[in-house]
Each structure stands twice: as structure tokens, then as C-alpha cells.
Amino acid sequence: MPNYWLMAPFNSGEVAQFEQVWNYDRTKRVISIGWDVGQFDSPEQMEEEYWLEVRRQITRGETKPWTTHGLDQLKTFWYEIKAGDWIVARRGLRKILGAGEVTGPPFYNREMAREQAGKFPEDHAYFLPVNWTDCEKDLPPYYLRKWITLYPIKESVFRELVGDEGIGLIKDATPARYGSDLASLSQRTYLTEGFLQEIVELLEDKKQVIFQGPPGTGKTYVAQELAECLAGSKERVTLVQFHPSYAYEDFVEGIRPRIQENDQVGFALHYGPLLQAAGKAKDDTARKHFLVIDEINRGNLAKVFGELYFLLEYRNRPMNLQYSGEPFSLPENLYIIGTMNTADRSIALVDLALRRRFYFVEFHPDDEPVKGVLRRYLGEKAPDMEWVADVVERANVQLQKDRDAAIGPSYFMKDNLTEESVQRIWKHNVLPYIKELLYGRNEELEIFNLDALKRGTASGSDGAGVGEEDESSADTPTEDTLV
């Protein structure tokens, strides 16, 4: 359930300064708060830094040093307001400016604080992304606590403050929430909504995940679809594929040849997909942006990532880039999804330093929900072809000695699937893959005869007792074979 908050974007007596801050916040789709003590990693560190600053203020002889009130407000802003909450923005004691939904976690940004302040003194460096809707109206005085910047209100108060017209505007302006988006994505991918929601929570926690599993399990497709779903637009998703010749200069930045105006060849600084995606995210802090890295383990990761190893873990701490020398940090609203094929033994293992910086999500045909994807797809699209799911499961039983070599469901998730197309896919896609896996062991290939697997008569193809089935019983699916 969302919580509701009433907040002044900027408590300043100067009208011009207030308007500068509010116009910035509304345009950038954020709201900010002051009491700047720099970056912190815990409530305890925040409190320690806060009181250190108070002592410095007293030493400087300031007549109005910060009080406990400021610390309480900062804690509320940073640790209590969550994505999905609603904020009503007020001006002074008599005016409502707008209302909006919080769309992401808080972040610290001194550069934005300077932009926001313009010619005025800046001290608001803590931001929340908010999808604002203008609904300006008078604010009844009995709702105010005069000296408090931010405080919770009840949903009934929120509705009364915003009014029916404002509620209508908000509904029109608010993008679809995760729930309905994930439900739709679940239908398209045939993965469970709970599985997708778990990935979303992992992304919110660490900002970067890797989908790993055998080929044909839908890793790349799901990565792109999930990124677009959460970002709300293809324009906020950047796709790149790693390969052995891919380098830091391709991914981050490097010097590249360019044709100059005089038609002579020169050299210029080139921004790779990482910096391009980060730039778009920094210019649009109210929305999520995604970088999808396909086949992430095909590149020389230590060479490709460079200082990104550090930045993946410490997003708020900038490092100087190798070529431009400019300070760079990963924005909080840039999420990274990688995919990794675990069947290719020619690929070096991901080193532990990178593994620690990502969550890993298993896509394996033997484990739910991936295990049931093909059966669910066929049950909806081609019920008479559901035997294909049995064939794939029986073949994977034979491949259990090498778990990462299992056959994924994507081979057969085709429109207008027929027995003839299954024969073609098996002969020209699946069998060559299996032959490569069983190189030098040709005697084992007979196990993967499609007709035998379809009847369930391949030796040991379905565990104990499978070889005892006869054709008449295998051709008529029983309740057990459909589970």
C-alpha cells in the first residue's frame, strides 16, 4: 500500500528562489531536500555526519545551526519514502502546486543541486524521482504544520487536497505500475509473475543482474522485454553484445578515427554504449534506464569494464575515465542486465570480483518456471503439439550429466508449429547441437532419436521404467505425462 506525504519543495521566503527550485523539480521530475551532509551508507553515518556539520556551524559562529528537526526530516526523506508513494507539493502555507507518484529510490547529486539553485545558494542535493502532475489550488490552513517541511498524511486527506480533478489528471499522467506490467510480461514470456517480481526486487537492491543458463532458455528475450517493461519505452533501453574482440574503448570510451571537414582522417573521442546510456539516464532522473549486455562472458571482462568494476559497487563515488580524464559515476537510475550462456566451454568463467557485483538468476530447463514454459506455450498456442514438451524433457534427462547442456524451450516456441516443423527443427537445430556436445561419442546419439523420444521408448529416456512403455500407451498422453 502506498503512503502519502505533504512536502514543500523549498522553504524560502524569496519568491524567485522558490519558483526557480519548483520549476526545476517539476521539469526534471524530482523533489529535493536540504541539510546536505554529503554521501552516507547508513542511518548511523548520516547522523554522525549531520552532527559534525552542526559542530562546524557552531564553530563558525552561525546564529541558527541545524537542530534535530533537520535530521528527522532527512531520515524520513531518505529511508521512509518508497517508490509507489504519493507526494503533494505545497508552496508556503496556502497553495498546492501539484502531486505525483514516487518512481524510484532517493539519490544524491551535487551537480543537480547547483543546476536547481541557479544564481541562488544551493544546499538541496538529496533527490527523489517523482512523476509530477500540476493541480494548483488553495490549501486549507488546518492541514499545515507550519515549520515542518515534510510529513505524512492520510489517503483521505490526499484525495481532499488534490480534489477529483487532480485525481483524474494523476490517473492520466501516471505510467502503469509494475503489477499490471509484470502480469502482461508474464503472459508474453510464459514465466510466472512471482519469478519476474523477484528479478525486479534484485534489480532494485543491487542495480545489476545476470541471467545465466543453457542456450534457448529465453535469457536475451526476457532481458529485453523486462527492461522495456520497467523503463516504459524502448528509447530508454540500450542493447550491446560482447565478443572476444570487444574492448574498453568500444564499451566505455576511446579514441577513434574520424573523417574531418577537410576530408582528412583525424581522431576524436568516442563515447561507447555505457557512457551513452549513462548520459541519457542522468538527463532523465525520474525514469529508469537499462543497459542490456548480451553474452556478457564472451568478452574479456577485466579489459572491457576497466574502472567500472569499482563503479558497479560504489555508484555515488566518481572515478576519472581513462581517455577523457573526466570524473564519471553510474547514475542510480541506470540498471544493467547481462545474459550468459553456460553451455559454451570456450568461454572463460566470470571472475569472482564481477560475480560479487551482480545477482545471478538461473534460467534452466530443468527448473521452474523455465521448465514449464514450453508446456504452457503449447497448451495455449498448439495443444495438439504438447508432446513436444515431453520430448524435450526426456532428452534433457539424458543430458543431465552436463546440466548446462540442456535443451531450452525457445527452439519450439514458433507460430504454427507442426509435426513437420518439429522434425526440421530437431534435425537442423537440436541434433547438431547434441552432436557437438557428444563429440567422439557417436554411439550415444541413438538415444536422441526424435521418434523414440516421442514414444518414450528411448533407452532410459524418462528415468526408471520409461523403456517399459509400449507404443499404444505412449501415443495416448496420460494425466502423468501432462504434468
How many helices? 19
β content, as a range?
A: 15-25%
End-to-end distance: 36 Å
Largest sheet: 7 strands, mixed
Helix and strand content put the structural class at alpha/beta
Count of distinct strands: 16
Mean pLDDT: 82
**Percentage of residues in helical conformation:** 40-55%
Q: What's the Cα radius of gyration?
A: 28 Å
Backbone shape: elongated
How would you describe the overall organization of this protein?
With 483 residues, the chain is α/β, with parallel strands linked by helices. It has 19 helices and 16 strands. It has helices at residues 15-28, 43-59, 68-80, 110-117, 155-173, 178-189, 193-206, 219-231, 248-251, 273-282, 301-305, 308-313, 352-355, 373-381, 387-398, 419-437, 450-455, 471-475, 479-482, and strands at 4-7, 30-33, 86-91, 95-102, 107-108, 126-138, 150-153, 208-213, 237-241, 253-259, 265-271, 289-294, 319-320, 327-328, 334-341, 359-362. Strands 1, 2, 3, 4, 5, 6 and 7 form a 7-stranded mixed sheet that branches. The protein has a 5-stranded parallel sheet with strand order 9-12-15-8-16. Strand 10 (253-259) and strand 11 form a beta hairpin. Helix 6 runs antiparallel to helix 8. The radius of gyration is 28 Å and the shape is elongated. The model is unreliable at 172-180 and 458-483 (pLDDT under 50).
Keywords:
483 residues; alpha/beta; seven-stranded mixed beta sheet; five-stranded parallel beta sheet; elongated
Reconstruct the topology from this structure.
Layout: E1 4-7, H1 15-28, E2 30-33, H2 43-59, H3 68-80, E3 86-91, E4 95-102, E5 107-108, H4 110-117, E6 126-138, E7 150-153, H5 155-173, H6 178-189, H7 193-206, E8 208-213, H8 219-231, E9 237-241, H9 248-251, E10 253-259, E11 265-271, H10 273-282, E12 289-294, H11 301-305, H12 308-313, E13 319-320, E14 327-328, E15 334-341, H13 352-355, E16 359-362, H14 373-381, H15 387-398, H16 419-437, H17 450-455, H18 471-475, H19 479-482
